[in-house]
Design brief:
Elements (H helix, E strand, L loop, with lengths): L13 H21 L3 H8 L3 H29 L1 H21 L3 H33 L4 H24 L4 H19 L20 H31 L9 H15 L1 H8 L1 H21 L3 H15 L2 H11 L5 H29 L2 H18 L6
Helix pairs in contact: 1-4, 1-5, 1-6, 1-7, 3-4, 3-5, 3-14, 4-5, 4-7, 5-13, 5-14, 6-7, 6-9, 6-13, 8-9, 8-12, 8-13, 8-14, 8-15, 9-12, 10-11, 11-12, 11-15, 14-15
Length: about 375
Amino acid sequence: MTSISTPAPVLPGRAEQFSTRVAFFIAGFGVAAWAPLVPYAKERVGLDDGTLGLLLLSLGLGSIIAMPLAGALAARFGCRRVLTVSSLLICLCLPLLAVVSSLPVFIATLFVFGASLGALDCTINIQAIIVERASGKTMMSGFHGLFSLGGIAGAAGVSAVLALGASPLIAMLVVAAGLLIALLKAWPHLLTYGSERGGPAFAIPHGVVLFIGLLCFTVFLTEGAMLDWSAVFLTSLRGVETAYAGLGYAVFALTMTLGRLSGDWIVQRIGANRVIIFGGLCAAAGLALGTLVPSWEATLLGYALVGAGCSNIVPVCYSAVGRQTSMPENVAVPAISTLGYGGILVGPAAIGFVAHVSNLELAFMVIAVMLLGVAASGRILKT
């Protein structure tokens, strides 16, 4: 009597790697496309600065709620379905955010948009871990580099379309069309499963996953500080004109993108642990330079060092998640993604509180000390 054997599953290959890169680009492009819309939405809905800041929390709340749900859904239905639905919702929300004038509808749309971004971000990292592990190569920094490239392309592209005289709605319809084309290109080779190991749908992070999540929290907090406070620092403490205040975040984003695009080569040459050690030290030194040396040139150089130092720490952490065995990736990735996103949300508010009680220089130096802690962790974390 002959037995019938079940064929082994096909491991992800080059096609899946390409689709993963496209999915990261979609996520970065979708996030960045929203930024140029904010002034238009503020004027159309009739919001002041304080109210807008509170309403934008609904975007972050949607993301945080969606991340653990996305991990569970990816494990049950596969990455392809979750990525497809999330991308389609982004394509629907962006045109709505360009025209809606009702406050309740605006809040609801922001929440759905944030949930879609959170689900997309979480699921692409689950797929990236599986694809990288199957390849046997270091690929995570390159994947995240495509997210950064998508962000640059999204912000620049939408701004250019608006500068040419197009309405926000036309600009967002162009964005949605581009995202749909990219999704169709990636769709055939997105993974039809979302975890290679069984496990619960939800779990509180523990052990090495919690440790990795705290590292991501610190790096994302730094990124949030650069996004929300670098321009304020340059204008209020370095005398830079408001029109040029965005240069701080621009140099940070540029060096982060370049660092990620070359990150796989760097990790292969010096090792993941040294990337964390040297990256944390570089970012801490850059923040100290930009804060303590009283010239705008030194501040811009410091922010460039922060971007370079932070660029590959999070990708290395996600790769480490793929190698740990205490939690399956469909549970671990949402856990560290939620902690990391919490850093982006909580960090800027905490910096504002410290700056109010003391000054902005002290707030930035506190982050520099936290980055030294990240560097020290590189000797502990088994990557």
